[in-house]
């Protein structure tokens, strides 16, 4: 349950997740897994704060989770079906995890296992000593779930110019054709403790870009339509354990990513979108020398090549994060996550305490605080500060 306190204060989440999976074997070389999740958010039944379209979208959801067959043959493993494919994982934000679609209706606040949306994929993996190759084909892609206008964390476009209203068309998804399938290759090797991987991935972008059309009569209106276009991504990850310190890094070059124009000076622009080539990288260190304490520090950057001056991000968007986690015995754990821009005062703070009070039971209490300018990555949610509690039973 979450309560948002800036005006107008309101209950913003009363979420119930029921996640059930089963797995087994058909033979020594063939295994299976089935899973599904039901989400019911009672905030839309007990309050009337949100528009009807948001209520229809978020009150009740049924989601297929991982549903696949695993087939083994010598040095090869094949996985066919709906599956999670994680090519990178850092703290707090997504960088090298380019394959996963995400449910971002609650921003990046839920645990990543809840955020990630599995893909319908055929994956082949080859293992030889310390070498690993992964071949991936996604014939029917999943896309980010961004929710509906008026939702708690729906904020994808710059505000319209004075005198104009905003209207959103339904999101346009790519057709189910061979030309719109996703495919990729990932190679990795473990050598002298260094775990190094490189990948190439071509896909219809999981995250949408909002294309705009300006209508001057009868009422001046900016009309937006979310669309997905093909992008190509090339990247790599590395990890190395130095005892009490673990080094991790990820980098991704994206070709043809769409950016919305923030400058409405030229209202005759055909679609309000410009394509840019982007390099994003992150370096992180985990420090575990202090007993029962984990400290993680990350430095990250997004560099835009030949930046168009009318987009919101600067040529170099720099940021950092700090996570401090400490365990008080076997049952109580406290942590605080801070993520901030280095370009401007734009940040998020997430302190949290969890309590494993019985076997398989966990309770948690936390606060999410956002601050920054209206167009900042976190500042756009400056009036969404919230306190929340969780109760979880795993069996």
What does the model show?
The protein has helices spanning 43-46, 52-58, 112-115; strands spanning 2-4, 10-13, 15-25, 30-41, 60-64, 67-73, 76-83, 101-102, 116-117, 119-128, 131-140, 165-168, 182-191, 194-204, 209-215, 221-227, 230-241, 245-260, 273-287, 293-305, 316-328, 332-341, 347-358, 361-371, 386-393. The strands form three sheets. It has a 20-stranded antiparallel β-sheet that branches. It has a domain at 329-395. The two termini are 21 Å apart. The radius of gyration is 22 Å and the shape is globular. The chain is mainly beta and 395 residues long. The protein contains three helices and 25 strands.
How does the SSE layout of this entry go?
Layout: E1 2-4, E2 10-13, E3 15-25, E4 30-41, H1 43-46, H2 52-58, E5 60-64, E6 67-73, E7 76-83, E8 101-102, H3 112-115, E9 116-117, E10 119-128, E11 131-140, E12 165-168, E13 182-191, E14 194-204, E15 209-215, E16 221-227, E17 230-241, E18 245-260, E19 273-287, E20 293-305, E21 316-328, E22 332-341, E23 347-358, E24 361-371, E25 386-393
Parallel strand pairs: 12-16
Antiparallel strand pairs: 1-2, 1-25, 3-4, 4-5, 4-6, 6-7, 7-10, 8-9, 10-11, 11-13, 13-14, 14-17, 15-16, 17-18, 18-19, 19-20, 20-21, 21-22, 22-23, 23-24, 24-25
Concise structural overview:
The chain is mainly beta. The protein contains three helices and 25 strands.
Features:
mainly beta, 20-stranded antiparallel β-sheet
Can you give the helix content as a percent range? under 10%
Mean pLDDT: 94
**Which oligomeric form is depicted?**
single chain
Detail the poorly predicted runs. none
Spatial shape: globular
Order of helices and strands: EEEEHHEEEEHEEEEEEEEEEEEEEEEE
Number of DSSP strands? 25
Rg calc: 22 Å
Ends: how far apart?
Answer: 21 Å
């Amino acid at each position: 349950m979450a309560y948002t306190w800036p005006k107008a204060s309101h209950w913003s989440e009363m979420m119930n997740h029921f996640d059930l999976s089963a797995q087994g074997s058909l033979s020594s070389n063939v295994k299976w897994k089935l899973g599904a999740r039901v989400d019911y958010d009672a905030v839309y039944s007990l309050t009337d704060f949100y528009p009807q379209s948001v209520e229809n979208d978020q009150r009740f959801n049924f989601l297929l989770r991982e549903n696949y067959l695993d087939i083994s043959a010598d040095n090869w493993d094949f996985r066919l079906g709906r599956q999670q494919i994680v090519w990178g994982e850092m703290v707090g934000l997504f960088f090298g995890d380019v394959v996963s679609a995400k449910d971002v209706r609650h921003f990046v606040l839920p645990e990543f296992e809840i955020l990630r949306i599995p893909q319908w994929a055929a994956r082949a993996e080859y293992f030889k000593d310390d070498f690993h190759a992964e071949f991936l084909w996604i014939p029917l892609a999943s896309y980010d779930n961004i929710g509906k206008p008026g939702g708690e964390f729906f904020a994808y476009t710059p505000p319209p110019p004075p005198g104009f209203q905003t209207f959103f068309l339904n999101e346009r998804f790519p057709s189910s054709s061979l030309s719109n399938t996703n495919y990729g290759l990932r190679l990795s090797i473990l050598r002298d403790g260094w775990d190094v991987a490189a990948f190439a991935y071509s896909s219809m972008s999981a995250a949408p870009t909002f294309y705009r059309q300006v209508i001057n009569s009868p009422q001046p209106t900016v009309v937006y339509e979310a669309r997905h276009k093909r992008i190509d991504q090339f990247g790599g990850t590395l990890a190395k354990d130095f005892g009490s310190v673990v080094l991790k890094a990820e980098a991704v070059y994206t070709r043809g990513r769409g950016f919305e124009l923030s400058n409405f000076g030229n209202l005759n622009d055909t679609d309000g979108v410009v394509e840019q080539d982007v390099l994003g990288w992150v370096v992180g260190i985990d420090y575990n020398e202090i007993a029962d304490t984990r400290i993680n520090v990350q430095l990250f950057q997004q560099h835009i090549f030949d930046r168009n001056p009318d987009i919101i991000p600067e040529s170099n968007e720099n940021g950092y994060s700090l996570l401090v986690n400490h365990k008080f015995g076997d049952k109580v754990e406290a942590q605080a996550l801070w993520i901030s821009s280095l370009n401007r005062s734009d940040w998020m703070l997430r302190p949290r305490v969890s309590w494993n009070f019985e076997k398989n039971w966990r309770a948690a209490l936390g606060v999410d605080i956002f601050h920054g300018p209206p167009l900042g990555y976190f500042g756009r949610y400056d009036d969404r500060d919230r306190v929340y509690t969780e109760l979880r039973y795993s069996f």
